[in-house]
Amino acid sequence: MRSIKKGLLAGIVICCMPMMTACSFQETLGVLWNSEDKSAQEEGTESSTANLTAANIDESVEQPTINNELGEPVTYGLNGEAEVLSVDAAVSDGGTLTYQWYRNNVDSNGGGTEIEGATEASYTPATTEPGTVYYYVVVTNTVGDGIQLTTSPTKCVTVTEEAAEATGAAEETADAEGTWQSSDNGWWFEYTDGTYPTNKWEHIEGEWYSFDENGYIRRGWYQDGEKWYYFNDNGSMAHDTDIDGYHLGSDGVMQ
User: Fold this and answer.
1) Which end of the chain is more exposed for a tag (fewer CB within 10 A), N or C?
2) 126-140, 151-165, 171-185: which has the highest mean pLDDT?
3) What is the pLDDT of residue 23?
């Protein structure tokens, strides 16, 4: 029993070193299993085997290869424009690759919180809350009913409150370039290169807008972290006004 637990722990420790290359199949399993309820670990190897079987792990399926790192730590101002995190993964067995991004409050690519809707090869970190967050992605290769997993290293993203005060005024913030587009599902903003913002804020024509995971503007009340904002019918953030009996400051935060 002790040797089994030590083996699992060693795999987890190696996997969670952020500056190393992407985790191997066995290490990824260690990370994912370690994030489960600890009571399962105390029950011994039978619980571990049951978890892996339930995941449909298949040794004949190729493990995804991640060909890039997410880069060095970065720092942004509050509501600033963050660079997109992208992962270049590949397999040669014809399998289907899927992605799930996670966030963590410690420098570890295991035991993080799944980011809802972040299921593409790229993800743009939010800059609406001061603090430090570590991002990583789990890449899954699926062939039939079998899968293999690879976990990326972490990316440290820090948002500083001080920078927000220096760049908070609309006239001091650069506007995004592009055009507004619409469909039956709502409005979105298309950059000049044809892409569009998702899960992020953007400063457009002197106003702040927030876009959901599908790229559409948000309307009405919206909670981002511990703060509440209100977006007008045209998607612009309300500020310096009262709505539903609540005052919204110059930064748009409900007071």
Assistant:
1) N
2) 126-140
3) 52
pTM summary value: 0.51
How many of the other CB atoms lie within 10 Å of CB of 136? Answer: 26
- With bands split at pLDDT 50, 70 and 90, how would you rate the model's confidence at 14? very low
Token representation of residue 55: 């995941």
Q: Which amino acid is at 197?
A: P
Cβ within 8 Å of residue 233, ≥6 positions away: 219
Average pLDDT, the chain: 79
Residue 73: phi, psi to the nearest 5?
A: -55, 145
The size of the chain, in residues, is 255
Question: With 0-12 CB in 10 A as exposed, 13-18 as middle and 19+ as buried, what is 239?
Answer: middle
